[in-house]
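Q: Give me the 3D complex with adenosine-5'-diphosphate.
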Amino acid sequence: MRLLVLGPPGSGKGTQAAILSDKLGVPHISTGEMFRKTIRNGSELGLMAQQFIHRGELVPDDVTIALVRERLSQEDCRAGYLLDGFPRTVEQGRAFDNMLKHLGQAIDRVIYLDVPIARLIKRLTARRVCGVCGSVYHMENKKPKTEGICDQCGGPVEQRDDDSEETVLNRLDVYNQMTKPLAGFYQKKDLLCSVSGDLSIEETTRIIFQSCLRRDN
Ligand code: ADP
Ligand code: ZN
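A: Here is the predicted complex, encoded as structure tokens.
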């Protein structure tokens, strides 16, 4: 099974991708997570990526494409994978098509999580994440039991550098200009399955299974 999860920042892509990858038994590949890891490691790639991510811009296509190409060539991706955050531009979509052709592979479905913009701003600016295990919290409806401390692992719960209001507005702009056109790109290939991401986490997962992952669709 090879799946893509597409949607604006804050649509719950990462959350759903983690749940689906667990239930389907395929690796969850998040380019955002991969970049954050390179930043934590202080590598050259990380220093470069940080400049873009901090401003809410996209990391350049050539860098991102090379990173994904390398990751998909690893052994654990043979039987399938779930991509979260890639492709994010039509250019990346085309490069990904070429990678697939080269490997003799095809994508099974593109899950598109649709959430109204006003909702996204709220979700993103109220979002907090654990710096150690990545668990996600929300200052209104999912606070950690002890302020600033992760329920799961005791790590520090912080705001992501790119979740400040100013950067969030830029990310949404960039999304509309650069990433949204990919919905049409995959619609034309008859791969797009659009689902409302404006429901509870569990309900969204249920609907994804029901409308996007049944054998007969
Ligand atoms: P979100 O979807 O909430 O914006 P991600 O964790 O997917 O968060 O991505 C965070 C940031 O990492 C993006 O704003 C962007 O700067 C960078 N990034 C992630 N994936 C890509 C990609 N495919 N191409 C370019 N930049 C990317
Ligand atoms: Zn944690």
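A quick observation: The radius of gyration is 17 Å.
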